[in-house]
Amino acid sequence: MNGPPLEAEGLTLAYDQLVVAQDLSVQIPRASFTVIIGPNGCGKSTLLRALGRTLKPRAGRVLLDGEPIAALRSKDVARRLALLPQSPVAPESITVGDLVARGRYPHQGILRQWSAADARAVADALDATEVADLRDRYVAELSGGQRQRVWLAMALAQQTDLLLLDEPTTFLDIAHQFEVMDLCARLHEEGRTLVAVLHDLNQAARYATHLVAMKAGVVVAEGPPSDVVTEPLVREVFGLACRVVPDPETGTPMVVPARRDAHVRHLP
């Protein structure tokens, strides 16, 4: 299939009377690892929620493989798109295994009950996120980092070609952050299209194939990390004086903040 798997056309996004974005349009390239970056409150997570159909736009539309996502049945969307929100809440007294198994719900129906394929999908998701040893534990007993990996496992168990992740490294220590990002990179290499919201510019530049930079509800730049992560853009979007140098491990852009006195001098 040609064309973007997911796109937004002329969106107005709002919470009650607070308008977050107007006339917002973006296309997610097929088979890309797209990362949305920008300062707090710029609309990153709001855009992701609209793309994942958990926030209804005031105006405009979201297209999933060229079809208006609002017109599709929920199960049809869930077979094609998995969304990991920023702060998911698990039901009380649910085990890790049971929570991850809920990722198979879109594949169930009157004529299709739990199968060996479902069991394999859950086992593979638990292994991929390294939480198989927690399978019988209650989710409420886990640390924040463990819970985040369990939620990611549930999203992986859906086995969708399109995966949306809102701050997937939240609560994780630095080693587990890179483990999760490496896992996302492997999923992308296997052919999935990923869209993630990240705060860490250097992680975004290292892992993304396509960056979308936002400020105040507007897309100010998009493209390969080498084109987007520049000193002028970091200063414009984040108000940070910096140098952008090649990452010594990957050659991707790496943001090095200026000394505090230089940062103060160059703030807009």
TrEMBL record:
Domain ABC transporter: 6-241
GO molecular function, one term: ATP hydrolysis activity
Domain of life from the UniProt record: Bacteria
GO BP: iron ion transport
Major subcellular location class: membrane
CDD domains: ABC_Iron-Siderophores_B12_Hemin (cd03214)
One Gene Ontology cellular component annotation held by this UniProt entry: plasma membrane
Compartment(s): Cell membrane
Pfam families reported for this sequence: ABC_tran (PF00005)
Membrane topology term: Peripheral membrane protein
Keywords in alphabetical order: ATP-binding, Cell membrane, Ion transport, Iron, Iron transport, Membrane, Nucleotide-binding, Transport
Protein name: ABC transporter
Source lineage: Bacteria, Bacillati, Actinomycetota, Actinomycetes, Micrococcales
